[in-house]
Task: structure prediction
Amino acid sequence: MWSYEKRLQYPLNIKKRNLKAAQIIISQYGGPDGELGASLRYLSQKYAMPNKKVAGLLNDIGTEELAHLELVGALVYQLTDGACTQEVIDSGFDKYFVDHTLGIYPQAAAGVPYTAAFMQSKGDPITDLMEDMAAEQKARTTYDNILNLVDDPDIREPIKFLRAREIVHFQRFGEALRMITDDLDCKNFYAFNPALK
Amino acid sequence: MKNMTCMNEQQHLMHIITLASFAMDDTRLYLDTHPDDCEALKYYEKNREIRNAALDEHNAKFGPICSYDVYPNNYWNWNERPLPWEVR
Result:
């Protein structure tokens, strides 16, 4: 069950609108390697995870990713709030604006709407953790790319925070994978799905 | 990060809550895979004390940040203060 705390996990204080940056950063809201995908992936995988510590980890990281989803949404909102028509046109934001105005919509920077096809929940602990480790690296690379494209320190600070969290999550999933493989029954030499009884 | 000297009391308490909560968030993930790490457990408890103290003070002076802590007093004031994602 989820409870909401009226605060952001990391403080945001955008002082200067930047619609070009908003168009890029939205990929971490609804894009292939973004926070919506991450939270849905981990929160979906938790059910079939037989190792309780790892199921708990999936739940906890999935919860943190929801907090990150909020951060990215807030960032895009603060970068676009109060924009006038000329800014929308000059920045190329008009293609998004026509369908969503200044509303926040889960899509990738290129306009592809979020889809569950961006994620997998395979019901096999080893497969799922491998997927999760890859997901964290993909997210980290995306944040690297954002840092390459954006100069404003008000934007860079929260992005650097989110990037650092991806690296920590990768580390935790690596440890979880080791825990799963250590637990493999000595009869399960070829690592058939440990979730199947 | 905002300069500590120009924070008002409410912002200062929220700053402490944010920091202590994050320390707990990060330690929670570590404890999920290292449940018997004594140092981590102590660090978690230390930050819980800091967070709870700041939270109690914030709730008393400026209102709750969790809806289970709302004491309405004839009006549902949960949505009164600026919402967290709003531009300051």
User: Anything to note?
Assistant: The mean pLDDT of chain A is 95.
